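Comment thread on ticket #2218

A.B. wrote:
> Attaching the input chain for the structure job we discussed in standup.
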Amino acid sequence: MSDQQPGCSKSVRVPPGMWSQNHPCAREGKVERDGEWWCKQHDPEEVKRREQKRSEAFEVKRAGWHREAVVMRACKDLPTDWLAEGGLPRLVRYCTDMASVIETQGEPELADHFREALP
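C.D. wrote:
> Ran it. Output below, let me know if you need it in another format.
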């Protein structure tokens, strides 16, 4: 019987480029799944876990981008001279109105931020 660990089952393209060819991964197999050996990098469970983690991180970023876009749409009509003309009462009315608009767009948490900003 051999002491040697079987190699990873993944086929990789080495070197990347115009004339690259497929070769077996050079790493030792560490995990056996469905009768095949995989290194840690190519283990299907690890690949799935890393992709899930990346996807969750992207969703957090995307939610931030969405909130930012909603606020930008809500504030695009904010007059640049609001302080000189209407002062604080005008800003309070504006924030109250925007909270209602944002809430109807399906962002109740963001609407609460507008309400919390009121003096």
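A.B. wrote:
> Thanks. Noting for the ticket: Residues 12 and 116 are 54 Å apart (CA to CA).
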